[in-house]
Amino acid sequence: MASSMLSLTSASPSPSASLSTQESLKGKLKLRSSGLSFTKEKINPFANGKSFGRVSMVAAVNASRFDGIAMAPPDPILGVSEAFKADTNALKLNLGVGAYRTEELQPYVLDVVKKAENLMLERGENKEYLPIEGLAAFNKVTAELLFGADNPVIKEQKVATVQGLSGTGSLRLAAALIERYFPGAKVLISSPTWGNHKNIFNDARVPWSEYRYYDPKTVGLDFEGMIADIKAAPEGSFVLLHGCAHNPTGIDPTPEQWEKIADVIQEKNHIPFFDVAYQGFASGSLDADAASVRSFAARGMELFVAQSYSKNLGLYAERIGAMNVVCTSADAAARVKSQLKRLARPMYSNPPIHGARIVANVVGDPVLFNEWKAEMELMAGRIKNVRQKLYDSLCAKDKSGKDWSFILKQIGMFSFTGLNEAQSDKMTNKWHVYMTKDGRISLAGLSLAKCEYLADAIIDSFHNVS
Asked: pLDDT tens digit string along 169-178?
């Protein structure tokens, strides 16, 4: 280890220092604090008739054991919020992070969530540890919400459901299961996809490749490319699919296209792996947004489904979600669940209880459930209104004849604008509109009042940056 030494010497101003004080300083007094070593030594007080002392300070500056660790780059999504906060311009807009805002662009806590929390207080519920698989009432209602309470996979107990740390944690748990029990199996991921998907599989040491999804020429779905790539993948691959409101594009397959995707996956003996982050929040209908998952389950296919309640119940910070594995038998589901628990134990031991109780109270109570559906319709409706207003503003302001209709064909909280990285940079540098570099904007962070301003920014950036 590299080190350097620093020595300071001073003469004592007090030749009449008491003998007792001098005696107490005999030898060496070593004080060590924060890597510094202090030493005071007694010198012959009668030499040349003067008394003096010497104080030596030794500073050892050692190279850190962590010098080999480089500074990590900022998260491409969460880093947008940090840059937004540092901007002092009054016109700034944060369209990067996918979190719902009111028309006044303020965070929103659902009324039904407040009621559920009040119920918890009234009952005086404790904070004891949950089982590894989570809250039983939560697991029951969340599987029923996803598949439908009358679905045969529910009635025949073919679904292994464990509570996870929102969508991210649920995906990570599934990745660990794949790594352990499907060694060498590849996960196919759409191009583009949510940025954290690749991080999750990389850290779990699960190989992945991309399938074509987005067509920049049409700002739509490259369905033929998607089908071709799924067909070309090694048999038995996992195909990661966005159940609804594809992130980042907002482009979903049609019901007919979903059936063709299922045909190819069955033909190749692949395993579908759904990420469902927006059930009910995309269209306003819980059933419509779960239709893709249910259609695959109806075929008798084994599949993975990760769920999140961050968006549809606004429980972002509660980190509440679930991992579901649909099997061909109740026995297989029981064994899969046991291994999911085994994987979860050394990861985080057991999940948090607060968000799980909120979901169990809301989804499990008919009155609160209906109130939640009404609130979801309002949130989804506000985003649809903003999407329409942005489209209208673009059409009114852009005289180039460009077709902006793709904005209305997209669904959910995100819109893929078709802007490239340089154009997205101009959106931020000139117009103070913060967004991800791939051109994605979160309409949930936009108000009707800001639509015309955003349209001006998009038109300027699109036409004036190559």
From this structure: 999 999 999 9
